[in-house]
Amino acid sequence: MTDRIIVLDGHALNPGDLDWSPFTGLGSLELHERTAEADVVARAGGASCVLLNKTPMSRATLARLPALRYIGVLATGYNVVDLQAAREQGITVTNIPTYGTDSVAQHAAAMMLEFARGLTVHERAVREGEWTRNPDWCFARRPMFELNGRTLALIGLGRIGLAFGRIAASMGMRLVAHDPYFPSRDALGALDIAPVSLEDAFAQGDVISLHCPLTADNRHLVNRERLLRMKRTALIINTSRGPLIDQDALAAALHEGLIGGASLDVLDSEPPPAGNPLIGAPNCIVTPHIAWYAIEARKRLMQIAADNLAAFQRGAPVNTVKPAG
Ligand code: NAI
What we know:
Blueprint: E1 4-7, E2 28-31, H1 40-44, E3 49-52, H2 59-63, E4 70-73, H3 83-88, E5 92-94, H4 101-117, H5 119-127, H6 130-133, E6 151-155, H7 159-170, E7 174-178, H8 185-188, E8 193-195, H9 198-204, E9 207-210, H10 224-229, E10 235-238, H11 247-256, E11 261-264, E12 284-286, H12 295-313
Parallel strand pairs: 1-2, 1-3, 3-4, 4-5, 6-7, 6-9, 7-8, 9-10, 10-11, 11-12
Helix pairs in contact: 4-7
The chain binds 1,4-dihydronicotinamide adenine dinucleotide.
1,4-dihydronicotinamide adenine dinucleotide binds at residues 76, 98, 100-101, 104, 155-161, 178-181, 211-213, 215, 218, 239-241, 265-266, 289, 291-292.
């Protein structure tokens, strides 16, 4: 029997610049750009397969979808699905463990270079006519510096942390990292990274970049105490998850000039409500959770999602996720 495959919120992955052809032959695909939680049952009722990115799949919703056999999460994080309820109903849940390592690492590198060079500040000034009015042939609106010889402190040295470390090393930066599972010498290859405590990472970094997952233990890992440990000139980068940082403490530190700046791709809740204290804070750059968004990364994600579904249909599922414990 042909599977009916419902994509509940396909717009984030494919706003129109990709196609869904990797799913050709796997069933009949019904595409929805977005789906409100209240409409999930109406759209997915009777379907065997659902693909979703951030649409919640609660126990109550799952109970009303008795025909469902498969949920393919179009992302790495799968906290939107009640895994225990899915298991009780015999539903296989899969995710995309990795697809955008280079995309995220390069976004972090772009944030670091922006801090060193101030492209956006200068571009805006030129656009507003400052160069045209300037008496000299050049002008700078803020200090600029080279990154070689400065220290990058990585919090989390997994796939993305390592990829960013390699970019930074190629620019002559010194690398330190904190990770409870620090990689072996073999995994690091030629990369020279010194293991440090969390407190030393904050004290030593000219740039501190978060690349660990959000867990029950590390919410607000970046708090006022650790911000006070940072050099007054240092940058904090977060491309991981918003709640790793106490956003009120960071906003205060930026307003008080306690640190050099912050570059954030993730916030506490997304999209952020009006009045988020970090949007518009001094020396703070915020991008809308797009570190993963390179076209290559999204194509890879689409292909892996289709491969996951095909493997499930063959009776040999891969990339399955299960409730903890
Ligand atoms: P990974 O699993 O390869 O590496 C994570 C590393 O963090 C591991 O080595 C782990 O031992 C370490 N770690 C765990 N808890 C830690 C802690 N409390 N302190 C320091 N290190 C800790 O994950 P990967 O692929 O490098 O991704 C990292 C994070 O990037 C993801 O968890 C996700 O939150 C974020 N991400 C963000 C995206 C974006 O578009 N902004 C896209 C993809 C991932």
